Amino acid sequence: MESQSKFRPNPKLKLMDQVREVLRYHHYAYRTEQTYCQWMLRYIRFFGSKTHPCNLKAHHVESFLSDLVVRGEVSASTQSQALNAIVFLYREVLGLPLEGQIKPIRSKKRPMLPTVLGKKEIKEFFQHIEGTHALMAKIMYGSGLRLMECVRLRIKDVDFDRKRIHVLGKGNKWRSTILAEPIIHELKIHIEQVKALHHRDLEEGFGEVYIPAALGRKYKNAAMENRWIKTSPASQVPLKIWIYEVLNQKT
């Protein structure tokens, strides 16, 4: 598979900083960046943390991937994820495409049926959560949002007039989905509370929200505008920091 571009990282940087530079150049999602870096570090540590990856060959990669299955008992998708990360390291960062085919011991794919809750179970679930977490769960259930799509939702993405939510999903692709009627009133109240929190933070010298760098340069005051606020921000921090992902998963 050919490289996406001729871009090469700054050779003066440390290896993992080079990795991040290339990932960000190609606009990989932050979550992908975290995952790839973790796998690359595991790969390096597997060989004692003293051997630079440029001195390791295809058979070393096979050995690492096989160990994941034999001793780690990882799933097929996890093994593929590790392979993708290491191939990216060699091809895009080091400029050393792995020669020949990599044929590790493969994890067996097991057919798995999705777990779907019935109506009664859904009602019981919502009886045991409350507050912001309950509202987020209702949005995900009623509008079909993924967890991180809900976590990253901003006020500007909610269209009450048309009863739609505009979602930035995987691959930085936008889509529009329904805004469930039963949660509209509750969501409006919540947004007003978030705006009040935002204004209070601004008065205390905090309250700026994260927006993409290019937009931040174009619209100097955008980071302080209501429309860019995320719908469940944390208070009293220079930049709004999301804590709800882990909490919602535990819920």
Walkthrough of the structure:
The chain contains ten helices and three strands. A hairpin with a 4-residue loop joins strand 1 and strand 2 (164-168). It is globular and about 60 Å long. The protein folds into two domains: 15-93, Orthogonal Bundle (DNA polymerase, domain 1); 119-250, hpI Integrase, Chain A (Orthogonal Bundle), CATH 1.10.443. The chain is mainly α. It has helices spanning 15-25, 30-46, 58-70, 76-93, 119-126, 131-143, 147-151, 184-203, 213-218, 244-250; strands spanning 158-159, 164-168, 174-178. 15% of the residues are buried.
In N-to-C order, the SSE pattern is HHHHHHHEEEHHH
Quaternary organization? single chain
Biggest sheet strand order reads 1-2-3
Q: Low-confidence parts lasting 5 or more residues at pLDDT below 50?
A: 235-247
DSSP summary, beta strand count? 3
- Could you name the CATH topology of the largest domain? hpI Integrase, Chain A
Helix/strand structural class: mainly alpha
The number of helical elements comes to: 10
Q: In CATH, what is the class of the largest domain?
A: Mainly Alpha
What sort of overall outline do the alpha carbons produce when their principal axes are compared? globular
Q: What helical percentage do the residues reach?
A: 40-55%
Distance from N terminus to C terminus (CA atoms, Å) equals 41 Å
Largest sheet: 3 strands, antiparallel
Rounded to the nearest angstrom, the radius of gyration is 22 Å
Beta-strand content = under 5%
CATH architecture of the largest domain: Orthogonal Bundle
What is the number of domains? Answer: 2
